[in-house]
């Protein structure tokens, strides 16, 4: 989405997973970098001051007549258009608390676990046009335009944004009217029941594209006696020349359903930004799902099988034919409050992760400045990857695969269906133990093209403080000084 700006959810929004699609802002170069000091907090470490950012005011419903009614079940009826008379009903007893409105064939089959689909087969309606979702914190239903082509209106007032950007969520009340489109307008009415007696907090449209948070310093988090402090540095590169930022990143700590687990991911898109942004939305949830099904956190091999399954499922759900992305996910977990802190990574492509201040294997030393690479680079120029491609009958000539430098990626379905040898099967590293005060650096190739793991360790050690913000800033500045012109996260 060209020139998209990060959106700040309202104070009333409930967002558990904090996915932050990287977006181009101002004239800053393209790049994203995530740094997480992991382990128990040092005894004398001072808390990192938070960089203030202004919260945008909560949009109010355009409808006059007082505050919105508290919400339970909902009935949505199409009043005008080709599907006039169609009705969708959600009761308080159903698990679904979201209504996704769009044309026939909207979304993917797995979205139905969190969002009911109201199909509107009308040319005015986009594939994913608008979302209604129950805000359990404020006990109100909200409506949000999902970047539709022809816009959405609530009681006659437009609530979408130009350039197909996602709109802000607005509270809705019983009797409100929603209009989809500009010319042959499709009108819907909303009927809302009484307030629910119990609530389960869910992110809006968590299985598709949850609202984003600003890429400002992220507050320190605590879970299972563990303190994780994360800072994300992201900007567009000088090579972009007006094109949108193609990096994305996401993190979830604690991971849904796992109090002692955190997941940190970066994505580097090619052919567009859609694959990276959608993968950032899907992969953490797929990791949680696979961990519930396969386990592995207490195994010496770590959650190897769960990580592999999560990558392959994400690739299937992306459904990107001509776009793709490199991806790296790092799982950080602690089984008991007094137990060791484990780190394990999986990746496809050339996004990499390194751990600064750790010994390989199960031994750790708190002040050791060794650096361990957690990922593997998947480029056609990599001898191991060239051998793998030849094993699959691919005639490799030069350092590109049908124009693509990568040999593994998410998306790019067209190449995968035509026997190119491209795969989404990830490399999964070994389980490692991290000492207190270690730094985990997860970054796209905007950093690694100019800085190797050893230089990364040196810059991290030379940072004025070992806070995540200081390390991320030092690495980003070094990459720019060394003429990195790529997107960097």
Report on the architecture of this protein.
- There is one protein chain.
- The strands form four sheets. Strands 1, 16, 17, 18, 19, 22, 23 and 24 form an eight-stranded antiparallel sheet that branches. A six-stranded antiparallel sheet has the order 14-15-2-25-20-21.
- With about 500 residues, the protein is an alpha+beta fold.
- About 15% of the residues lie in helices and about 30% in strands.
- The protein starts with 17 loop residues before the first strand and ends in an 8-residue tail after the last helix.
- The protein has helices at about 275-295, 305-320, 385-390, 415, 445-450, 455-460, 470-480; strands at about 20, 30-40, 75-80, 85-90, 100, 115-120, 130-135, 140-145, 150-155, 155-160, 170, 175-180, 185-190, 220-225, 225-235, 245-250, 260-270, 325-335, 340-350, 350-355, 370-375, 410, 425-430, 430-435, 440-445.
- The protein is built from seven helices and 25 strands.
- Helix 6 (about 455-460) packs across helix 7 (about 470-480).
- Residues about 1-30, about 40-70, about 105-110, about 195-220 and about 360-370 have low confidence and may be disordered.
List its salient traits:
single chain; 489 residues; alpha+beta; eight-stranded antiparallel sheet; six-stranded antiparallel sheet; 7 helices; 25 strands; 28% strand; disordered N terminus
Helical segment tally? 7
The radius of gyration is 23 Å
Portion in helices: 10-25%
Sheet with the most strands?
8 strands, antiparallel
Which blocks of ≥5 consecutive residues have pLDDT under 50? 1-32, 39-71, 106-112, 195-221, 358-368
Oligomer: single chain
Helix/strand-derived class? Answer: alpha+beta
The chain-level mean pLDDT equals 74
**Shape annotation:** globular
Number of strands: 25
Share in β-strands: 25-35%
CA distance, first residue to last residue: 17 Å
């Amino acid at each position: 989405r060209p020139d998209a700006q990060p959106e700040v959810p309202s104070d009333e929004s409930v967002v558990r997973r904090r996915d932050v699609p990287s977006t181009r802002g101002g004239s800053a170069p393209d790049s994203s970098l995530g740094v997480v000091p992991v382990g128990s907090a040092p005894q004398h470490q001072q808390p990192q001051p938070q960089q203030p950012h202004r919260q945008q005011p909560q949009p109010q419903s355009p409808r006059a007549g007082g505050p919105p009614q508290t919400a339970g079940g909902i009935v949505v009826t199409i009043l005008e258009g080709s599907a006039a008379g169609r009705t969708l009903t959600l009761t308080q007893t159903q698990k679904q608390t979201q209504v996704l409105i769009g044309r026939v064939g909207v979304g993917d089959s797995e979205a139905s676990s969190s969002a009911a689909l109201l199909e509107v087969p009308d040319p005015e309606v986009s594939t994913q046009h608008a979302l209604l979702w129950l805000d359990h914190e404020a006990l109100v239903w909200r409506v949000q335009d999902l970047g539709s082509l022809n816009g959405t209106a609530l009681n006659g007032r437009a609530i979408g944004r130009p350039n197909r950007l996602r709109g802000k969520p607005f509270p809705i009340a019983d009797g409100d009217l929603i209009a989809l489109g500009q010319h042959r307008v499709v009108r819907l009415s909303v009927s809302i029941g009484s307030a629910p007696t119990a609530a389960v907090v869910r992110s809006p449209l968590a299985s598709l594209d949850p609202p984003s948070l600003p890429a400002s310093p992220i507050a320190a988090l605590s879970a299972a006696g563990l303190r994780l402090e994360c800072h994300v540095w992201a900007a567009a590169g000088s090579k972009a020349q007006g094109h949108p930022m193609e990096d994305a990143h996401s993190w979830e700590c604690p991971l849904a359903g796992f109090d002692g687990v955190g997941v940190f991911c970066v994505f580097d898109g090619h052919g567009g930004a859609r694959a990276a942004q959608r993968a950032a939305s899907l992969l953490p949830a797929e990791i949680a799902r696979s961990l519930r099904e396969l386990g592995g956190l207490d195994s010496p091999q770590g959650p190897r099988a769960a990580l592999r399954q999560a990558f392959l499922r994400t690739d299937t759900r992306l459904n990107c034919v001509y776009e793709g992305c490199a991806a790296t996910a790092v799982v950080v977990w602690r089984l008991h409050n007094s137990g060791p802190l484990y780190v394990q990574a999986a990746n496809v492509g050339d996004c990499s992760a390194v751990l600064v201040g750790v010994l390989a294997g199960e031994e750790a030393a708190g002040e050791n400045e060794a650096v361990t690479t957690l990922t593997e680079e998947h480029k056609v120029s990599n001898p191991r990857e060239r051998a793998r491609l030849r094993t699959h009958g691919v005639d490799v000539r030069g350092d590109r695969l049908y124009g693509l430098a990568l040999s593994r990626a998410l998306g790019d379905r067209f190449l995968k269906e035509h026997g190119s040898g491209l795969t989404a099967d990830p490399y999964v590293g070994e389980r490692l133990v991290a000492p207190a005060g270690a730094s985990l650096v997860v970054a796209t190739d905007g950093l690694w093209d100019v800085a190797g793991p050893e230089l990364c360790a040196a810059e991290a050690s030379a940072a004025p403080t070992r806070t995540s913000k200081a390390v991320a800033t030092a690495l980003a500045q070094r990459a720019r000084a060394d003429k990195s012109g790529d997107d960097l996260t």
